[in-house]
Specification:
Helix content is 20%, strand content 18%. The protein is built from seven helices and five strands; from the N terminus they run ααβαααααββββ.
Length: 232
């Protein structure tokens, strides 16, 4: 390979991970598969019954592998969130090349376009798993598309550049847990002897709570909860 083309040399051959560790499961996109000079694909389209639907034979690996051994992890954001500012914060500063420089960071315009595409995708039907970032769930809708086939992502450049979106989201985000915050005001008091309806309740004390609950979407199990007393 000519020195002038060294920038395109596969990172696996350059020893990118030899003295370090994976920072994201999506970095598996640099791992060679069982074909000559082919790496695992988290972006490329494959032949399907529809020539317009992007599919990856490797997308399921995002749900199979993890960087952490604990069965329950705190602090992950749902890809189905209605808070785009949170997703923008995660994607901000994503780098298109693992060995890149500051010039390889995605711009705020590119970031905002990707987040808009993602929120539009999940507004009608939430994602069931992270695989749907790459392979659309056609059982939901025959016209459903995947984020990785959206123009906001394909316009980032080559395979490594496009996979920067997955490198940012794959370990910081999840789809299985609903995180809910309940704003609760508990009142204590009594009913006077002449009360004839609920409106006659006399409030003598009040306490404000924020209750944060994590619920498994598949089983309905409450995974964790935290109660915070609000002092105003």
């Amino acid at each position: 390979m000519q020195p002038s083309l060294s920038a395109t040399r596969p990172l696996a051959l350059n020893g990118a991970f030899q003295n370090g560790v994976f920072q994201s499961v999506a970095e598996l996109g640099h791992v060679f598969r069982g074909q000559p000079w082919k790496t695992l694909s988290f972006t490329s389209a494959m032949p399907t019954t529809s020539t317009t639907k992007a599919r990856s034979a490797d997308s399921g690996l995002l749900d199979v592998f993890t960087l952490h051994e604990s069965s329950i992890e705190a602090g992950k954001t749902s890809l189905n969130t209605r808070q785009p500012l949170v997703l923008k914060a995660i994607l901000s500063g994503a780098i298109k090349r693992l060995w890149g420089t500051s010039s390889d960071l995605i711009s705020s315009t590119q970031r905002d376009s990707i987040i808009t595409a993602l929120t539009n995708l999940t507004s009608g039907q939430p994602m069931v798993n992270k695989t749907e970032l790459i392979t659309p769930n056609l059982s939901v809708s025959s016209s459903r598309t995947a984020l990785m086939s959206d123009a906001s992502v394909t316009g980032l450049g080559n395979k490594e550049a496009r996979e920067c979106v997955l490198r940012a989201f794959s370990d910081a985000c999840q789809t299985r847990t609903w995180n809910l915050m309940i704003d609760l005001i508990a009142q204590s008091g009594r009913y006077p002897p002449n009360a004839s309806s609920l409106a006659g309740f006399m409030v003598e004390g009040e306490q404000h709570y924020w209750v944060n609950v994590a619920i498994d979407r598949f089983t309905g199990e409450v995974i964790d909860k935290q109660i915070e007393v609000v002092n105003e």
